Structure formats: C-alpha cells, structure tokens
Amino acid sequence: MLWSSMLQRSSLRLHHALLLAAWGLSSHAAAQTAAPADAPAFDPLALQVQPAEAGTRIGLRMEAWAQGVDLRDGASASDDVLGRAVLDFRREWRLGESLRAGFSDRMEAVEGNGDAADRQRNALRELYLNWQATPSWYLDAGRINLRQGVALGYNPTDWLRENAVVMRSSQNPAALRENRLGAVMLRAQAVDARGSAQLALIPQLSDEDTSGSRFDDQFWSLGLERTNRHRAAFLRISPRTGERVVGDLTAFARAGDAPQLGSNLSYTASDSLILQMEWSGGRRAALPAAGQAQGGTGWFNRLAVGGSWTSPVGLVLTLEHHYAGDALNEADWNAWRAVQGSGARALGELRRGVTERQDLLVRHYWFGRAAWDRAFGVEPLELSAFVRRNAYDHSSMLQVEGTWHVSDRLDVSAMFNRMIGSDSSEFGASPVRSALAVYLRWFL
C-alpha cells in the first residue's frame, strides 16, 4: 500500500517532468536544423578522435522521472514524492581536417511535495577543442571529464572525481563518473607502437572557500571551485604489454598536497574472465577518529581488486574488494557510531565530505554487480544491479535497474534503491530507506 500510494501521487510529478522536458526540447529545436550529422558516442579518455559517421541524432537526451521515497523513522515526510526532468546534451563537431570541438551539458530540475527537495541545476560537464597535431600527437584544451581507473565500484586513481558530482539521480558509480563536472585543463596525448602517454595541466581558476562542502550551486554556476580550486598536474604512461595484459602508471600532483602515485592492471584470463587491479598511494591526511578535529598524516594505500565473469547467456558478474588505508578502521568506526549530540553532527559533516569526494568511509568494502543485456533472451530488455557492503557494520546499499528499449529513440526504465542496516550503521543511517523511480528517456 505504501508504494502504491506514493506512485499514485508521483503521477503528477511525472506530468510536470514531461512538461519541463517538452519546454527544453523547444528551446533546443534550432540546434537540430543547424547541427551537422551526429558523430558516434565519444569518450574524452580516447587517445584518438574517431571519424564522424552519417546520422540524424543531434545528441540530446530527455528524461522524465517519477520517484517515490520511503523515509527513515523521524525524517521529514514532506518530500517523499519527487519529479525530475533532465536535458542531457553531448556532441562533437569536426571543425576542420585536424580540429574538433566537444560540448557536454546536463540540465536537471527536481520538484517535491515541499520546498526542501526542489532544486534546479545546469552542469557544464565538458567544453573543449581537440587538435591532432600529427598522426600520433593530440592536444586538448578546455573543460574535460578526465576519467581514470579500471575498477567498477571504486577508483583510487581517479583523482579528479573529488567534489565533481553536483546532482545524483543514480548511485551507480558508472553514472557518477559520466555525469560529473570536468576540469579545465590543457592536455597533450601521444600514441605509437610502444604505447601511449598523456600529460594534463590544470590551472587554479577559483579561490572560493569550500571547507564544510560549501559550493556555489546556483543554476548557471560553472562549479570551478569544485574542479579548479588548486593547480594540478596528471601524468599517465601506458606501455604496450600484449593482448592479455593492459596496464598503466600514473602520477598526480596538486598544490598543497603530497604527490600521489597509481597503477592500473587488467588481465584477460580467458574469453569469459577478466581480472583487474587498481592501486594508488601517497602521503595524505587520514579521516579523524571520534573527538578529533583531524587525522594523522602518513603514507596510505588505496586498492580496488576484483574480476568480471561473463556467463554463456551474456550475464556479466563482477566482484571487487575495496580498501583505503586512510579511512576509519573498525575500532574508530564503532567509536563514531556511539557518539551523541555535537559528535553526531560532526559525524554527519564527516560523512558528507566523504560522499562529495567519493571516498571510502571505512577501510574495507565489498562490491558486487550483475549486468545482463538482452536478459532472458529478450532483445529489448536490459537488467543490472549492484550492492556495496560495509565490511565492518555489514550494512549495504543496493540498486536494481531495468530498462526496456522501446525503440532506438525511446527507453522505459525502473530503478529501485534500498539502504540496509541498523540505524547506527553507515547505510542504515541514511534518511532515505528506499526509493522507487520510473523514468522515460528520449534520444534525439
């Protein structure tokens, strides 16, 4: 009865979301006639720019969501029904024989029963120029979402993830990597028979105080205090190692912080099994224990290790173990769970900062994922699920999603989230116990 009631009330939110999406379509209609033929989906990590192909899509995706939320006891029930509208644009244009321009933007509006959940935000994710100087050298300038790491659930070498997510419609790590803000940078890339290398230089473009996770989240804010508050440099070297083994060595330096080192390694054990490891290490500040203002500084390692197996029917199963030496050990986490009053507020601030940085709160987690395209042999059906489990308090975060591809232009999806655990556990303490969303996606 609870979910039935919330879904009935959410129908109005879905109607509002459809109207917002339709408004966005009319505002972008001129682009459809002015834009050239669409290029295939692009990845800013790619070392080479792919040639454009003929097509009719302009690169715009529209989403309309209706979501019901089951709140934890004691939480406000004023926003247990939400509507969400999204305009997501992603496109690359060829400006010449060796010059390309890329633009990626996400406009999102959320409306709830009360004013607390209402939020509108435009996220300029990417805006850059790519120049192919020679057949093996490339230069990029602008805002680029530089993603890094072979693991699925946690990426220790993805240093630019910190504070880059402005709105979350999904907890899926892949979606968070895709929809975050890029950093303004100048990047040089080279690729030849020996392998590839890239160097990115990131300037400081904001001096805003972001302590306590304070960010400028006005609608048109560029969010430079999230991505370009400090000067930084990133280096990646990936030698050719054969068909079965792929690896890289990375380094990251940011003003005010000690340099960090990292490495990714992927091994194709068989046609159906891939093993991967991702590591980073360096001097950094640890999370503080209960009653401390800050943790000690030292060398800490971070690690994600696991593998993915593809079954004969196409079901892909992934299992990973995540570790962060700078996170809380079991004794410190249990001490935090017992705090009251101002200590509880301090714990809330600690957790909020960890979430913004997409770091780990405790040292050990397990992560599992299942993904199945053409599930049960049904061509339009796509199913996926993942779970993240705190190894100390055994609480978990679960997300299950199903998509029906109605056509190459329209998807219908449903997503269910559940936080499992006691009220003092990491995930059980979340104000949202569970959420159920139904949403439509149009590709134009």
Radius of gyration: 22 Å
Overall outline: globular
Helix and strand succession?
A: HHEEEEEHEEHEEEEEEHHEEEEE
Q: How many beta-strand segments?
A: 18
How far is the N terminus from the C terminus? 37 Å
Extract low-pLDDT stretches: 1-55
Strand fraction equals 35-45%
Largest sheet: 18 strands, antiparallel, barrel
Helix content: 10-25%
What structural class should be given to the helix and strand makeup?
alpha+beta
Overall mean pLDDT stands at 87
How many separate helices? 6
What is this entry, summarized?
The chain has 444 residues and is of the alpha+beta class.
Q: What would your notes on this structure say?
A:
It is built from 6 helices and 18 strands. The protein is an alpha+beta fold. Strand 2 (81-94) and strand 3 (99-112) form a beta hairpin. It is globular and about 60 Å long. The protein has an 18-stranded antiparallel β-barrel. The two termini are 37 Å apart. Helix content is 15%, strand content 45%. Mean pLDDT is 87; it is low at 1-55.
